[in-house]
Amino acid sequence: MDVPPPVANALTLSWTFGFSGAVHSLASHDVRSPGGERSAIFYTSSHTGIIYDYKTKTQQLLQGHCNKIQATVISPDKKWIATADAGPDNVIVVWDSITGTPVKTIFNPHQNGTAALAISEDSMCLASLSQVDDVGEQELSLWEWTVESEGALYTSLVPGVVSSDSAHTSVSFDPADHRVIVTNGPHKVTFWTWENFQLKPYNPVLSKRDSGVLQSSTLISSLFLPDTTTAVTSTTSGDLILWDAVPKQERPEDEEEDPTNFPEFVETNPLKSMVKSIRLSEGQISYLGTTMDKYLVVAGEDGCVRFYDFSLRIMAWYEDLNAGPVTSVSFASNVPGNVDDSASDFVCPDFVVGTATSYIIGVECALFQEIEPENRRGAVLVQGIGDHTPCIAAHPTMDRLVIGVADGTLQLWDFMTRTLLMVQDLMSDGGVKQRPQSCQFDGAGRALALGMTSGMLKVSDPDSLQEMASFTNGDMPITTIRFSPDSSWLAYADTANFVYVLNFAIIEEAPQPEDDDGSTERSAPTATWNYVGRIKSHTKAITGLEFTVREDGRLAMVSVAEDRTLVEYDLSEATPGTGIKLRGEPTKIEQIAVPTACMWHPLLGGDFEDRVVTANNEFKFKQWNADNKSCRRTSLCPTYGGPLTSLQTIPAINPERNQFGPSPYVVYSTAEKVIGIVKIPFDGNPHKAMGLIAHPTAISSITVSGDGRFVMSAGGEDRCVNIWQISTATLDRKCEEAAAKAEGLGSAEMYSELIDEETKNDLIDFFYYAQLRTQGEDSMEERKITGLVALSELPNLVRSLGYYPSEEECAAMIAEVYYAKFTETGETCDTIDLDTFIKLYVNHKSVFGTSKGEIEDAFSSLGAGDGRFSWGKLVEMLKNKGENIAGDDLKNIMKALVGGGVDGVNPASLMNAAVFSDKILGFDEDGGAMDDVKENFNETGLTDLEV
């Protein structure tokens, strides 16, 4: 295998599969490149721009957007590329098309981002149409991007836009006069001018017939025809509408001017009217363009590209591309000598076509002269992904990647050569297309398991993708598939919360009767997957399912779910006759948090016990003893995105055995946007983890290559799969630099970065005060500051800092310190030092604290249908439900909250979440405590405190 060059980041984007938006040709015979020739195209894949050289098959990746790119445009001379996105922190970026470097970034050009872009003929100006803002308005802005200035040159509201339904989606400059612009929405065309230091809109005068034409179909895009006064607009019905200046005496009598037009504009500009509407296609016209200043190019839903002269007489047509509906067309540069007018009646530069099915097709002008249809199809330059990608899987021993596509197809790629090896349609026996939801290779690379949205499981050949076996034992989507390490077991889970198990068996055929010569024939053994059974082991969605081989050699399988339980399965005697049984009872592992992922802790050097690691929605890793299911450690998860939803170890080469085994690095992903790497041991050290925005929205699946060099991520709805090169050495350097910086300050110095300075000072003060309490606050003996605090003081310490764990969580903290070294030395510890306490506090404390919303959810969960309880009922539940609070303790708690002198509360008084949080707990609007709690409590009218 080729070894990729070293990279500077722990994860570096090396390739992206996918195509969305428009394609632009950068092909030219007059560019700043060796040899003076270039064969490249530009297109987007999700939030990444791609300059792809289709001769050398290399990608230049333009990264700078955190949202999906919504609009792109290139300058007429192919030197500049402009991209724009929509969403929070949106930007417009202008790139050098040769170097791929950004030369201008416009931050937050519009409130919600950009819907469309245009560039003037001289490349000096950009026009941007905004997404509709929060009050339903849209604006058109003009930018002199080559000038060092803040803000737009001009900005004006688009008339008639009141919501996204009426928003304009197309903008174009007049090539003959960049002071004139045209935009259009679904039923309205607006012309603009920016002379006299204002950007002014003008709506054409329309007759009743013209208005009816605009309302009867949806407008797609508009542009000006070069060297004419005519503009054209395409529609979803296949019509082309022509606009031009018409003498007033020749207009229909019922034609009326829009009263919102500026009078001075009308006086100085020719009034445009609808000249005519002509049907050019039976389907939607998605693309309008011009080339060589002599042809109008039309393409759309019928998959054809047609050329017309400016009198709308057809000149040429490319109708055999067979690549689906056309969404964009782009031509190579019109360099003098690049085309030969004498060679044919019709000539044009070579062009590229982008389609709705995510193909990019290269088309030579000469194909128009070909006789046979198969010779007129062009060349596939890029095959993207035609639908969203719910799942991906990397082959364990080869450079192959399977992409499951929601349109019912599988793509098999060689991800190192970037070659599409095969596309397979997934059809059931009844001829109905199956849609993949999950996929996984077995560890030996001999089978590919596919879980469908219909509940069917397919086992396919990993080379041919042909089905070897199929099972339909459920009717709900299969979300997770796992193979055992020795590939002899397969388990999968579906959205009905069932876990299914199959076993790979070798069946020996019975010997045949002896032949006449006394010999006995025996058939070759048959390998097959046998269905063992299923079990509904959880009451809510399953979020993790994992196999391992225990240290004693026993196969083990566990699952976790949103019902907060950890379940272990007994596979030792699982057969089709006995089905699947659990090993022990399900273990409740969380009180409030919800498990979102799990993995088996790899057995690295120095490990003496098997552990299951879970991640939860409170950004915590928890490590559970595999035998007694006790919590061994709680640590902070990476918090770069949402809660972690997938955890996968990165394989590493074992030099002694020349085999791949587990490494101390784990790849993770969140439900949206972020993937990253975290280093084992999980201890909350913020320098041992990194994350980046891999996709602008949801992440549907991640997978790691068998050699541990790459991690692949699928963006689901964005139809994009990214390949990231892994450099664990970069993460190691980051850890070493942080450790060197904290040297001499205590190993907890790097953890203290996660708490503010005031809390840090309080923490130190309270820790030393706890040492005084241990010896006795009133003791007259000489004080002995040992730097150690008894574990019994831990609950008081963390609560003094504003973190209020439950009794179960306190017990887990104490046990974590008590047994910290037990598996290594057999010794326990009943004290804690300051460094350890800082780590413990940072890892256990809540990331977000308690909010009013959570208190409202708690009231609702307790059964308050209208959100209210009587005070007496609430007190009764506090005494008897969950971790019940004894009467004296509850009374002391209430006195601490509302102060002394309040003796009772009427049990019939009603209490809701707002009163409880504001008046009892004393939360302000931001969720913090208020100073005068007693006064607020008495304002409720609850004057008698009695618990």
Automatic annotation (TrEMBL):
The keyword Ribonucleoprotein does not apply. PROSITE patterns: WD_REPEATS_2 (PS50082). WD repeats lie at residues 382-423, 692-734. Keywords: Cell projection, Repeat, WD repeat. The keyword ATP-binding does not apply. It comes from the Eukaryota. Pfam families: WD40 (PF00400). Its main location: other. GO terms for cellular component: motile cilium. Coiled coil: none annotated. It is found in: Cell projection, Cilium. Gene3D superfamilies: EF-hand (1.10.238.10), YVTN repeat-like/Quinoprotein amine dehydrogenase (2.130.10.10). This is Cilia- and flagella-associated protein 251.
